[in-house]
Amino acid sequence: MKTIDLRSDTVTRPGREMREAMARAEVGDDVYGEDPTVNGLQETAAQLVGKEAALFVPSGTAGNQIALLAHTERGNEVILDEEAHIYYYEAGSPAMLAGVQLRPAAGLLTAQGPEVLRRALRPANIHFPVTRLICLENTFNRGGGTVMPPGVMARFYAMAQERNLAVHLDGARIFNAAVATGCDVREFTRHCDSVMFCLSKGLGAPVGSLLAGSREFIEKARRYRKALGGGMRQAGILAAAGLVALQNISRLAEDHLNARRLAAGLAELPGVEIDLDKVQTNMVQVKFTGRCTAGDFVRQMAGRDVKCNASGADTVRLVTHLDISSDDVELCIAAAKNVLVKGCCG
Ligand code: TLP
């Protein structure tokens, strides 16, 4: 029986077309800037997000950390949401690598975020760290895959520019935000100085992310990528998969539809709470209100060939992607019903 894997949109496997493109890829040594496929991907990516240049990096975490290094100096303050991926899931690397002080602000990634930022900004004073960077995240992973509308990003960017601060966008899933709102991705990315987006999530590539920004910023980033061991050689084999992945952007709408179906089906079951307004892209956050804990649910579902991840003691995240069909969604709802009505959690 097929396992339905809803742990993340990172679990997709490259299909035949992608593997063939990888096999055919023209390659060169990218540390010398001589890989034509990497160069092609970087140019396409820069154009797509409306920036001067882009850099192919091994992962989203690498892209974010290189951005932090290139925007800041040791001891600078970086303001971000307390639930942001950079703060929550990147293994403490801002302290380890850039040596910056992170200032987690609750509610930064909400519609009231610009107000939260206004309160967090402090005047120049010898006691305070020098604030240099604001990190946004769109879509917001721990927020349930919610979209920050371009208008809210514009308010952040205006405030940052007034204070001479840079804005980095963790846009791991920025194309999900674009597809969900029907906006061109540049409507979002024009309100930041740098953006990282992932090829290896809903777009389905096996590896890779891009960091985009001004030419000067990307030159700096290239050196940090090298320093971190991310200067890859015949990386065109991976970039070729990335170019195929970029053709999957409009397909993200199917994942969003599947997530909405999944949320609606699960919301009918006893002992769970789902904020359907937050199901805006490819994620469903389920809160358990009865006897079942998140850990119980994950274990019971695994026994029924459905994988999902706990995102807290009483919350589980389910993510739809390229390898999840509408039939899989129905099977997942049936398995959850079995667990919550008849299983140990029932
Ligand atoms: N997120 C992963 C896990 O790390 C939690 C997932 O399964 O969602 N920014 C955001 C907003 C992300 O969600 C992720 C990955 C990253 C950055 C990092 O990307 P990778 O995994 O390529 O380093």
UniProtKB/TrEMBL annotation:
* Domain called Aromatic amino acid beta-eliminating lyase/threonine aldolase: residue spans: 5-287
Listed Gene3D superfamilies: Aspartate Aminotransferase, domain 1, Type I PLP-dependent aspartate aminotransferase-like (Major domain)
Q: Which UniProt keywords apply?
A: Lyase, Pyridoxal phosphate
What's one GO-annotated cellular component? cytosol
Entry-linked Pfam families: Beta_elim_lyase
Which residues does this entry mark as bearing N6-(pyridoxal phosphate)lysine?
A: K201
PANTHER family reported in the protein's UniProt record: L-THREONINE ALDOLASE, L-THREONINE ALDOLASE-RELATED
Give the protein's recorded name: Threonine aldolase
